[in-house]
Amino acid sequence: MAINASPRFIRKTIVLAAIETTYGVAPAQVAANALLMSNVEMSYTSNNKNREVIRPYLGASEMLVGDDYITFTFTIEMAPSGIAGTAPQWGKLLRACGMAEVITATSRVEYVPVSTGQESIAISYYIDGMRYLSNGLRGTFEIVLAIGDTPKLKFTFTGRYFGAANDVANANGNYSAWKVPQVITNANTGDIKFGSAYSSGSVTGGEPYASRGLNFSLGNGVSYQSMLGATSADRVLITSREPTGSITLDLDAATEELFRADMRLNVTSSMSFEFGTVAGSKIVIFAPSVQRLNPKIEDQDGVAMTAMDLRFLPVSGNDELRIICK
How far is CA 249 from CA 205, 211, 300, in A? Predict the structure, then answer.
């Protein structure tokens, strides 16, 4: 039995990601493409075919390897670039999840969903001397804004298999553009507001409510589609989008009664949430039409709070969510 005298360590991991100009064509990766991430996992799926042959004795027949694809999951700290009008390092990941990046110079960067022309990324994933490649990746994400924690983006990407793994040295990474996030506390985070309005990067008005934070899921339907033909015939597609979320609010009895009445009547409302206090490091989440569903009482340190699910609906199309960095 061979003894491994050079074990590879998971902590010695680097991942590089770059937007593809042409779908399925990986651009050159540079140190600045390094992702500052945690909870990284890669899985490989092969659509294998069992031969199922019959012989005069019991036993398995081999599986024939078919089309295959890669799935990546990881977590990113949701900290803006620190400069108003400059895209955060994680912006390219949102773009590969069917979000358009709209930059207003020196002012703000906004991300809104699109239904056509979704972009894709290529990833080079190194684990202590072994490189795994995937291109044509598209995905979906969750936003977790929980009190007492750092703001997080949790991504799930599906990509094309890009040949065998390579025994090569880890790439170098430059993380200087990544910023340290603020913990979500009352001092640097605003209220959940219902009934607010959006205009030119600013959210105004609305009724504020004390909360435990916000969870959001973009809910993209992402699928790998194998095809016969040209080299890039197989592909990853975003075929649907169904954004959902959840919140927990501290409501008095009369307000909870109103909320439950609205839910029974399918009443929707705009909603906003903001965190960060310094220009260039603020993030605003705005949704023009949110349906509240499934209320339930939660025990928070002996206090009865009202938790509810959220469903984010489009108004004029591709507008059910807006992420604003400013």
Answer: 19, 4, 10
Q: How far apart are CA 193 and CA 209, in angstroms?
A: 6
What sign has the CA pseudo-torsion 93, 94, 100, 105? negative
Digit-coded pLDDT (tens) for 243-277? 999 999 999 999 999 999 999 999 999 999 999 98
pLDDT per position as a tens digit, 187-224: 999 899 999 999 999 999 999 999 999 999 999 999 99
What is the rounded CA–CA span in Å between residue 232 and residue 200? 40
Helix (H) or strand (E) holding 124: strand 121-127
Return the biggest CA–CA distance within the chain.
Answer: 78
Report d(CA 190, CA 184) in Å as an integer: 10
Q: What is the pTM of this model?
A: 0.94
Q: Where are the chain's structural domains?
A: 13-47+66-325
Please list, in sequence order, all residues whose beta carbon lies within 8 angstroms of the beta carbon of residue 202, skipping any fewer than 6 positions away.
Answer: none
pLDDT at residue 185 tops 70: yes
**Phi and psi angles of residue 32, each rounded to the nearest 5 degrees, phi first:** -70, -10
- Specify burial of residue 254 (Cβ count, 10 A radius: 0-12, 13-18, 19+): exposed
Which distant-in-sequence residues (6+ apart) come within 8 Å of 264 by Cβ? none
Residue 44's alpha-carbon distances to 68, 165, 274, 316, in angstroms, are 7, 12, 38, 39
Whole-angstrom distance, CA of residue 73 vs CA of residue 68: 17
270 — phi, psi (to 5°)?
Answer: -70, 160
CB 236 within 8 A of CB 69: yes
Give the number of other CB atoms < 10 A from CB of residue 229: 7
Give the residue among 270, 256, 263 at the shortest CA–CA distance from 312.
Answer: 270
Three-state DSSP class for residue 66: coil
